[in-house]
Amino acid sequence: MEPIKKFRTKTVVMPSTNIDTDQIIPGRFLTTTTKLGLGRELFADWRYRPDGTPNPDFILNKPEAQGCRVLVAGRNVGCGSSREHAPWALLDFGFLAVISTEIADIFRNNSLKNGLLPIVVDETTHVWLLANPGAEIEIDLENATLTLPTGVSVKFPIAPFPKYCLVNGVDELGFLLSKDAEISAYERRAAG
Amino acid sequence: MSAAVNAPRTMFEKVWTAHEVVPETADTPAVIFVDLHLTHEVTSPQAFSTLRERGIKVRRPDLTLATMDHATPTRTEQVFGGAPITIDSAAKQIRQLEQNCAEFGIELLGLQNELRGIVHIIGPELGVTQPGKTIVCGDSHTSTHGAFGALAFGIGSTEVGHVFASQCLLQNKPKTLAIEVKNRLAPGVTAKDLILAIIGKIGVSGGTGHVIEYRGEAIRALSMEERMTVCNMTIEAGARAGMIAPDDTTFAYLAKTPRAQKGKSWDEAVARWRALATDEGATFDRTVEIDASTLEPMITYGTNPGMVVPISGRIPDRAGDPVFDAAMKYMGLTAGAPIQDAPVNVVFVGSCTNGRISDLRAAASVLKGHKVAKGVHLLVVPGSQAVKREAEAERLDRIFIDAGADWRESGCSMCLGMNGDTVPKGEYSVSTSNRNFEGRQGVGARTLLASPETAAASAIRGRVTDPRSLLR
User: Fold this and answer.
1) Residue B4: pLDDT band by 50, 70, 90 thresholds?
2) Is B276 in the same domain as B342?
3) Shared-domain flag, residues B197 and B229
4) A125 in a structural domain
5) Which residue of chain B is at minimal alpha-carbon distance from A181?
6) Residue pair B218/B195 in contact by the 8 Å Cβ criterion
7) Choosing a second label site near B176 at 20 to 30 A (CA), which of B138, B242, B381, B413?
8) Containing domain of residue A99, as a range?
9) φ and ψ of B348, to 5 deg
10) Which residues of A touch B209 (CB under 8 A)?
11) B442: pLDDT confidence band, cut at 50, 70 and 90?
């Protein structure tokens, strides 16, 4: 995984609340056996018309959304299915972060494991972001801050361990495997 | 010994602490040991690829059990008759799981295995789901297994790889939420109605960051199948896991399962399990109370499971609320209108929520002697091959087929439509499954979630129907 330190990008806004992972990537695309290429199917049922052509009314198809790499979503984004295909699709499409006031647990975990930043902000910041689509913001992961073009800077919560992994570009499996002795000791106790 | 050691603890805390390989620190999450890892064809291929890329073995194949359910066909000729599986990529995924399990030494209950079924149905059926265990699976409805007093939750594919490689997960300790369900459910009101009412009350993110413990008189009175229905939909309230303290109902269920301990080790296990219940005086981070006796059959009208009303009620009128307006537009229903008599085109009885034998008996008891309404497609999909055999032994299949239903092999089927069992665009489906999200049962499908009884009654009339009006 590439280390993530700091980036500036414009936002794209999808104000709907409770955007579930079935919307992010519908179930019929989950018969894949790789993580690759899922960006094509991101938000497929909103993004394409029944004949497969792009729906011009959907935000990701609009010219102003091109190159925007942070998704600002309504409250409780990522609820529902545990499919990791949701963050894979968002990343493959080009997103680096998802911002909301509430992010569902499994989606948040899955996102952190893949380098998609799940950023929870306060109501005031969220209202500002929703009202200002296309705003250029800066996300500084090392300092866990999000800076708006107004100059206002807010802290966002991220646990030290996933932050360490993301900033250094290391995955969590190495840490788990380094606990082999402790795991073996536990297994011996459990077999008791 | 410090006082803290003897402090009253919740069931969750007991299970959590017993599985700490390395406790949480200020800088690192806890390393939690996993007692049972269930896996299936859809969320495992990428995890197996990671193992292969890094040259890692599955640490504990003996604690891992694989089956196939999500993308599998339900048509008998495709399962047993050698007919080609309709969806090529699904067939490939099935073959991939066969190869992966063979290569990594994992027991697979494959397509034609008589023990195959939906992963959350077969764990309990086999008796590998047990009180006090930590159970994970790459599927959000893993919460089902909490009905036995296990700590069970869904994980993503990266974490599936973590468990394959280390038999452990990195976890931050969740908070606890007690849901106290007072009094008893009225006759004709089911566990499905109870959990839908709970989700309606606390909301689809009401449980985020928490493990729920369901408590109280109404919960104690539920059968294991009903407890599984309640815990299954815990994730629809956003919670990580749902748990119910094990009791004599739990032990009686497990005693009949093929893989539970026998003899002396069974007695020892039961003694251990009895100590799991939350101690008197233990505290939860939050508590919510609900009175079971006031509930009616419930049914959803919108596009998330929290958009739910009593069946005799009306769709609320929240015009101007963008979520509500979008849901009404998608569903083609009218704000303020009664939900009863809403149109029905498809009825699905099945899924990890309501695909157990008791659910099929409930649907059959309503359908017996009736035909489905003209133009209604009733699809009945048992949750496992064992459920199918039992239903056929009880001649329930005859009741379904005589009523005009399609009777299939087991699988997730129309709950998520991955295998091609879908609801046509724009049609209304009364479904015993767990999610009414846009497009969940097929592109443009309109789903109303309800109990097997309500689903069956609605199939007979071709309209949303209160099953109590048909029960003899």
Assistant:
1) low
2) no
3) yes
4) yes
5) B21
6) no
7) B138
8) 6-191
9) -115, 120
10) 105
11) very high
Residues B325 and B202 both lie in one domain: no
Q: What is the pLDDT of residue B2?
A: 47
Considering CB atoms only, which of A22, A28, A31 is closest to B93? Answer: A31
- Beta carbons of B46 and A176 less than 8 Å apart: no
Query: Looking at B296, B314, B349, which one is the last position of a domain?
Result: B296
Give the distance from residue B193's alpha carbon to the nearest chain A alpha carbon, in angstroms.
19
- Asked if B303 and B291 sit in the same domain, the reply is no
Whole-angstrom Cα distance, residue B171 to residue B118? 26
Q: Where are the alpha helices (DSSP H) in B381-451?
A: 385-393, 396-403
Render pLDDT for B458-470 as a digit per residue (tens, 0 to 9).
999 999 999 999 8
Whether A19 is covered by a domain: the verdict is: yes
CATH number of the domain that A179 lies in? 3.20.19.10
* Least Cα separation, residue A151 to chain B (angstroms): 30
- Domain ranges, residue B197: 1-296
B367: CB partners within 8 A, 6+ apart:
B399, B400, B403, B405, B456, B459, B460
Domains identified in chain B, total number: 2
Interface contact flag, B322 A15, Cβ < 8 Å: yes
* Residues B266/B130, Cβ–Cβ less than 8 Å: no
Task: Among A34, A114, A159, select the one facing B158 at the smallest CB separation.
Answer: A114
How far out from the chain centre does Cα B117 lie? 13
Number of domains forming the structure of chain A = 1
* Mean pLDDT across chain B: 97
Quick one: B265 and B307 in the same domain? no
One-letter amino acid identity for B390?
A: E
Q: How is A94-157 classified by DSSP, letter by letter?
A: T--EEEES-B-HHHHHHHHTTT-EEEE--HHHHHHHHHSTT-EEEEETTTTEEE-TTS-EEE--
Identify the bridge partners of residue A19 per DSSP, sorted by sequence position: none
**Which residue from B21, B26, B425 is facing A186, i.e. has the nearest CB?**
B21
First to last CA, chain B: 61
Q: In whole angstroms, give the CA distance from residue A118 to residue A51.
A: 33
* pLDDT tens digits, B11-35: 999 999 999 999 999 999 999 999 9
Contact criterion met (CB < 8 Å) for B418 and A81:
no
Q: Would you state the pLDDT for residue A192?
A: 79
Residue B60 has pLDDT above 50, yes or no: yes
Q: Looking at beta carbons, which residues of chain A come within 8 Å of B43?
A: 82-84
CA distance B42 to B141: 14
pLDDT computed for residue B1 by the predictor: 42
Is residue A40 assigned to a domain? yes
